[in-house]
Structures are given as C-alpha cells and as structure tokens.
C-alpha cells in the first residue's frame, strides 16, 4: 500500500485570516526546522512579528526557513542549537537579545521520541536522549528565557507537550509519555511562579498531527488511525501553530498554566 498523503490523513488545510496578533514582537522558536515548529515560525511572521529567531540542529533547513521568514517581511535569524546543552540555550537567548534588544514571545518546541519498544527493552542511552531533550531541554530553555523576559518587562511562553503526557495512547513509547508529563508539570509550576511577574506560561498538547515524527512512529495503518479520530482526520501542523500563536497573543491575556489540547477531540472521544 502506498504511503498516505497529507490530504488523505488530515484533509484540506482550513483557511485562516491573520490579524497582526504578534505585531512588533520578538519571537523565538526552538525545534523550528520542521513540523509544528516550522509552522509556528511561519505563522508568527504572518501575524506581523518584528522578528522570529529560530533554533534547531539542522543548519540547512534552518537557514532556508530563516530566508523564507525574511521574504515574508519579518526579520529572522537561525541559530544552531542543541537544547539539551545548557550553554547553547544560554547563547541562543543572549544572541537574540543582543540582536533585537529584547524577547517577547517563545515557543519551546524541540522534542525527541524514542523508537517504539516495550519498557523493559529500552536502554539507558535512549532514556537519556528522551529526557535530556524533552525535560532537561525544557528546563534549560525556560530558565534562560524567563530571565530575558523579566528584563524585557514580561512576555509569554508556550511549551509543546503532548496528549501522551496526559494519557499515553502509544504502547511502546512510555519514555516519551513520561517526559511529556514532566513538561506539563514544569509548565504549570513555572506558570504559578511567574504569573505575578508579568510572564504567562502555557502549553499545547498535540494529538495525531501529520509531522515527520508521527509518520516515523511505526504505526502500520495511518489511514485507519485518522478515521478513528473524532474528526475522522489527523491535524495539520498549522492548526497547532494557530493555538500557539493565540496563547502567545494578548487575546489569551487571562490564560495561565493551561494545557490546550490540540488533538481533534482525541482525549474527549
């Protein structure tokens, strides 16, 4: 059977009308070279962000995206970054503030999912890679970003969690699920600590979204999975990006410590 197309799995991409939600803001996206991170960076540019700094480990993809963002009329800079390395995250935030003077809105998207296997078959090295990227990376990012936001007078952070952190739907991906549960806990704790200091922190929890990570997750029949969801389709990365941009905007000014499930009804179904 041929691999399913994006339209087969997710249908046509719904239309939306940008409304300058992030006008004048300096934005930062980690894990931006593909999937949800890439979609979020492009949406920020379309929402009139002044600048979108993008970070990731794949230099050619990052440079190409940065060029695309500049063509949309937004200043952009790609900085090669491994979020599991604290020094690289610190340098990312410092370069952003040095170049653009401040930091306003952040989407922490970088993540890693192990190859599907039962828990007893996973190794120390796999555990380290999952938790160093998804949990240590989130901790590294938030502590430097929060410091920069405080200096800028406040701002907003959205962290990328997963429905797997709320209810693990993926046998064989126990480490990924546990790491995303930790992301949700870190998000809520940080949100309570910094809400009174002018920093709003929230998370999105995507469900079945058509990304490279999803397509590489060893699911035998993607078409059947899509049909089994309440909307009878998977999601587009752009649909998660819409939720991210909304949470970062002033339209979500009273939303703090929330996990917005961008899952097409998966958890409710």
From TrEMBL:
Gene3D superfamilies assigned: NAD(P)-binding Rossmann-like Domain
Coiled coil regions, renumbered to chain: none
Gene Ontology terms for molecular function: oxidoreductase activity, acting on the CH-OH group of donors, NAD or NADP as acceptor
InterPro entries on file: KR_dom (IPR057326), NAD(P)-bd_dom_sf (IPR036291), Sc_DH/Rdtase_CS (IPR020904), SDR_fam (IPR002347)
Pfam families from the UniProt entry: adh_short_C2 (PF13561)
Source superkingdom: Bacteria
Chain ranges of the Ketoreductase domain: 25-207
Family: Belongs to the short-chain dehydrogenases/reductases (SDR) family.
Protein name in the entry: NAD(P)-dependent dehydrogenase, short-chain alcohol dehydrogenase family
Organism: Enhydrobacter aerosaccus
């Amino acid at each position: 059977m041929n691999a399913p197309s994006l339209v087969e799995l997710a249908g046509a991409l719904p239309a939306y009308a940008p409304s300058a939600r992030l006008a004048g803001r300096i934005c930062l996206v980690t894990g931006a070279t593909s999937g949800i991170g890439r979609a979020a960076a492009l949406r920020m540019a379309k929402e009139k962000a002044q600048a979108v700094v993008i970070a990731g480990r794949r230099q050619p993809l990052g440079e190409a995206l940065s060029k695309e963002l500049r063509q949309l009329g937004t200043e952009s800079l790609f900085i090669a970054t491994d979020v599991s390395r604290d020094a690289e995250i610190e340098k990312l935030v410092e370069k952003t503030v040095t170049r653009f003077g401040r930091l306003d809105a952040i989407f922490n998207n970088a993540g890693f999912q192990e190859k599907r296997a039962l828990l007893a078959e996973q190794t120390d090295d796999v555990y380290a890679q999952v938790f160093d990227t998804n949990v240590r990376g989130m901790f590294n990012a938030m502590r430097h970003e929060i410091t920069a936001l405080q200096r800028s007078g406040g701002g907003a952070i959205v962290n990328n969690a997963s429905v797997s952190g709320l209810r693990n739907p993926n046998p064989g991906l126990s480490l990924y699920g546990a790491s995303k549960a930790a992301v949700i806990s870190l998000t809520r704790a940080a949100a309570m600590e910094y809400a009174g200091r002018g920093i709003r922190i929230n998370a999105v929890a995507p469900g079945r979204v058509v990304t490279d990570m999803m397509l590489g997750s060893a699911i035998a029949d993607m078409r059947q999975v899509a049909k089994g969801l309440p909307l009878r389709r998977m999601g587009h990365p752009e649909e998660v990006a819409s939720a991210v941009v909304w949470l970062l905007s002033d339209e979500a000014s009273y939303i703090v410590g929330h996990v917005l499930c961008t899952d097409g009804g998966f958890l409710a179904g």
